[in-house]
Write a structure and sequence with these properties.
Elements lengths: L17 H51 L22 E4 L2 E16 L8 E12 L8 E7 L2
Antiparallel strand pairs: 1-2, 2-3, 3-4
Length: about 150
């Protein structure tokens, strides 16, 4: 016999409770904050890459500048160091970058100028050049090359 009243015999309740909503909000917040942290890491990596690229460009330009100098120029004489106290005429400040170089005669690469016997002897020179960025995480550009006349 029916009494006309519908009685719900389920023991659970329908809908989302407050605890479930708080847990879902917490999980979403953690995810959003993680993505924001990744954006910050990306920005930092981009700054490091930019500083490294700038160091390479400056190092290449400085090497080409040194190559265009006369062989007797003070900046092309043997000497210099890549570490420690910079030696006179073997370093330059280019913007925020310090460029340092070391030059030495290349072994067994000396000949009379123009190949003329009795002419003064000139040697090819090894050059090592480094561009140092103030950004400690950026790549330091180092170039090893040879200078000819």
């Amino acid at each position: 016999m029916s009494t006309g009243v519908d009685v719900d015999t389920r023991s659970g309740e329908s809908g989302v409770g407050l605890v479930e909503a708080l847990i879902a909000t917490f999980i979403t917040a953690v995810g959003v904050l993680s993505v924001a942290g990744l954006f910050l890491v990306g920005v930092r990596m981009q700054a490091n890459a930019t500083a490294g690229s700038t160091a390479w460009a400056v190092a290449t330009a400085e090497l080409e500048r040194i190559r265009t100098l006369a062989p007797t120029a003070a900046e092309r004489i043997d000497g210099g160091t890549l570490t420690g106290v910079p030696e006179a005429n073997h370093w330059a400040q280019r913007g925020r970058l310090m460029v340092r170089w070391r030059i030495e005669n290349k072994a067994n690469a000396c000949a009379p100028i123009g190949g003329v016997p009795g002419a003064p002897t000139e040697c090819a020179k090894n050059i090592q050049l480094i561009a140092i960025s103030p950004n400690a995480h950026a790549i330091q550009a180092r170039i090893d090359s040879v200078l000819f006349r």
